[in-house]
Write a structure and sequence with these properties.
Elements (H helix, E strand, L loop, with lengths): L15 H9 L5 H5 L5 E4 L14 E15 L5 E9 L2 E8 L4 H4 L5 E11 L2 E5 L2 E4 L4 H5 L7 E4 L8 H13 L10 H7 L4 H9 L4 H33 L9 H9 L7 H14 L6 E6 L5 H14 L3 E5 L3 H14 L7 E4 L12 E4 L13 E6 L7 H9 L8 E6 L5 H6 L5 E5 L9 E6 L4 H11 L3 E4 L17 H9 L8 E4 L5 H13 L4 E4 L14 E4 L7 H8 L9 E6 L5 H12 L3 H11 L24 H14 L7 H8 L10
Parallel strand pairs: 4-6, 9-14, 9-15, 10-12, 10-13, 11-12, 13-14, 16-21, 17-19, 17-20, 18-19, 20-21
Antiparallel strand pairs: 1-8, 2-3, 2-5, 3-4, 5-6, 5-7
């Protein structure tokens, strides 16, 4: 018996070499191979005789293979030729540089042949056809795998062909195996799904593309259902297994802090703060995501929450993804809390905290490497949380001492579409900041063609406002595909020696030392630098309120959500902001997509457009550490997603009655998003 949970090397004739190649395709187990679905099909279902063939036909012919010979040209290239015959005539078969085929082809045997009719030396022929030996019996013809039917084509890697995958999948399906249905019978009946064995066979070897598509829906639903059951599991474990510090409200004190701020909270800030403070007063630890565009005021809510922790005699850990951002938040905390008795410390890779006597510790991932566990932690805040992996978030929660777990507030400026909110973040409570402190905030966005580039630079020079110029690369790439893409170091030299000569210009990128980066940002914020040429490092939270203009080079390389975050770096005061997107190619599709950025100011709508046009990996610009993309389901299918969500909520409480489903939930499946 072939067990589906076994390593793929348990399949006959798969040794270490093939095992290694399959792992590149994320195929580790027998079941992974069965779930490695084709991305298209070649239709070889039309059967003709040799006498009926015409140029361009994509057909199957059944007959006898004639003599096979290898011919070598004067340049040493190999040519394999063969004759193929049936009762109506014969046709030539040609293969280039595949002389090894002669050993595996049996002259005089019955074959089924599929391919496209072409020409060679002005005669009709098949070039590199698919051949499959058959018996004369009709039953054997019906069992063909590579010819005479819809033939599945798979994503492949070096050394692994679609034909090889087809053969192995057919071997597993024809052998005794323990592939068993685990979806509840009621779900199968309600959705009119085939059972798992028939469904998998109908995708790999369908009778029609309609049949394949119908069965693919079953596995797309299955993928979402399992993922959302995991979400329900995480929610249950958080609420039932974890106990937290129940904060006292101290309404008078928190109101005094809020009223003393140099600005008024927006309506959405007030709502979100009420939700956060409400969570802090529960014995179940808060697990809330605070989402809001750049400049909507997420940090101030974290400061108020940390103040409530302080007056409850508890401490706060505040984790930022970069040293620049950690330094910035350290300054903000001290500024807002200067009239309180709270002590704020900073811990990064280049700076060590001055003492252990602190109420708020702001830091980078350096906080993860503390020698001892943190004591009396009541609140953990993770800023730009998608920059941290799932394991890192879990690790910082595990660094706190005691049985009572701290409340967790994660924050992001990345707009999250509704579909991702249901999956990646379905276990979190979500607060959204929709308003800006400056009601009249305006950022004018323009897609700039190459011929207008110099004109825009002249306009920037005349305007003389603090300006970001963002390049996707640090230095020039030798790759031909990237030769038009701007590099920050090169562009810095070109601009300072060219159109911006005499204007104070700075350079910022990830390879600079922390102190160098900090100094550059400080000078830009103070007005000592007028133009800052940078990589997208500025996307993560650099706050320069006076910045009015941003130029984004090679904008077609970014997702719309990332571009939206970048343009949020300007127009943060009462001044009008300007965002110019430059393209490094002339793609019409890219231009059309960027024009959408001109019209739309809503981050969530832009993220949903990303999801629709480019897929979930582009919501964050990069595939997140700790997450894998869905391989079958489409996150844009909101109807299926909501149905799977309802189904997961219905079945999770009674999982004990479905042992196979429960077992499936505990397995780490490479084909599902990994959120636990």
């Amino acid at each position: 018996m072939i067990k589906v949970e076994s390593p793929v090397s348990e399949i006959p004739k798969i040794g270490p070499r093939y095992k290694e190649m399959l792992e590149k395709l994320e195929i580790f187990t027998v079941e992974d191979l069965l779930y490695y679905f084709p991305f298209r099909y070649d239709d070889f279902s039309i059967v003709k005789t040799v006498g009926q063939l015409k140029l361009g036909d994509i057909v199957t012919v059944r007959g006898i293979l004639g003599p096979v010979e290898n011919i070598f040209t004067k340049y040493g290239k190999g040519l394999t030729r063969a004759k193929f015959l049936d009762h109506t005539g014969e046709i030539e078969l040609i293969w280039f540089n595949q002389t090894y085929l002669k050993k595996s082809l049996n002259t005089g045997k019955n074959y089924s042949l599929s391919g496209k009719v072409g020409t060679f030396n002005n005669k009709l022929c098949f070039i590199s056809p698919e051949l499959e030996q058959t018996n004369e019996g009709e039953n054997q013809i019906l069992e063909n795998v590579h010819t005479g039917r819809l033939v599945p084509i798979y994503p492949t890697t070096y050394g692994i062909t679609s034909k090889w995958i087809r053969g192995k999948v057919k071997l597993i399906l024809n052998s005794q195996n323990n592939l068993e249905e685990f979806l509840p019978e009621e779900v199968l009946k309600d959705k009119k799904f085939k059972d798992v064995k028939k469904g998998i066979e109908s995708i790999h070897f369908p009778k029609s593309e309609i049949e394949a598509k119908e069965n693919l829906e079953r596995f797309a639903f299955e993928e979402l259902f399992i993922e959302l059951l995991n979400v329900e599991k995480k929610k249950h474990e958080w609420s039932k297994k974890l106990k937290g510090n129940k904060f006292k409200a101290f309404e008078k004190e928190t109101t005094k802090l809020v009223d003393g701020l140099p600005f008024k909270l927006t309506n959405s800030q007030k709502t979100a703060l009420s939700e956060i403070l409400g969570d802090l007063q529960k014995s179940i630890p808060m697990n809330r995501l605070l989402e809001g565009d750049v400049g909507t005021g997420k940090t101030i809510l974290a400061i108020v929450a940390s103040y409530l922790a302080h007056i409850n005699n508890l401490k706060t850990l505040y984790m930022a993804p970069t040293e620049i951002l950690a330094n910035q938040h350290f300054e903000t905390f001290n500024k807002i809390l200067k009239k309180t008795n709270m002590k704020v410390e900073l811990e990064t890779g280049s700076k060590k905290k001055k003492s252990n006597n602190w109420d708020v510790l702001v830091g980078t991932h350096a906080l993860l490497f503390a020698k001892d566990k943190y004591k009396d932690i009541g609140l953990v805040v993770i800023d730009e949380q998608h920059r941290f992996g799932v394991e890192q978030r879990g690790k910082i929660m595990g660094l706190t001492e005691g049985n009572l777990k701290p409340h967790l507030l994660t924050m992001t400026a990345t707009p999250i579409p509704r579909t991702l909110a249901l999956t990646l973040y379905g276990d979190l409570s979500i607060s959204v900041l929709k308003d800006f402190p400056f009601e009249q905030r305006r950022i004018i966005t323009k897609v700039v063609p190459k011929k207008m580039r110099e004109q825009v630079y002249r306009w920037i020079k005349e305007k003389n406002e603090p300006t970001f110029i963002v390049c996707p690369l640090i230095s020039e790439s030798e790759s031909e595909t990237l030769e038009e893409v701007k590099a920050a170091t090169v562009e810095f030299e070109n601009l300072t020696n060219g159109i911006f000569k005499g204007i104070k210009t700075g350079l910022l990128h990830g390879r600079m030392r922390p102190k160098e980066k900090e100094e550059v940002v400080k000078k830009f914020r103070n007005g000592e630098i007028k133009i800052l040429v940078s990589t997208p490092v500025i996307e993560v939270g650099i706050d320069v309120p006076d910045a009015a203009v941003i130029v984004i080079e090679s904008a077609e390389r970014y997702g719309l959500a990332s571009l939206h975050q970048l343009r949020g770096r300007v127009g943060r005061s009462d001044k009008e902001g300007y965002c110019f997107t430059f393209m490094s190619n002339n793609s019409r599709n890219a231009y059309k997509r960027l024009k959408y950025l001109e019209e739309c100011k809503d981050g969530i709508k832009l993220a949903e457009k990303d999801l629709e046009t480019r897929g979930q990996g582009d919501i964050f610009g990069i595939t997140q550490h700790g997450f894998k993309k869905l391989k079958i389901a489409d996150l844009g299918n909101l109807k299926m997603l909501e149905e799977a969500k309802i189904c997961a909520q219905r079945y999770y409480p009674k999982l004990s009655g479905y042992p196979r489903l429960s077992e499936k939930l505990t397995q780490r499946k490479g084909r599902y998003i990994t959120t636990n």
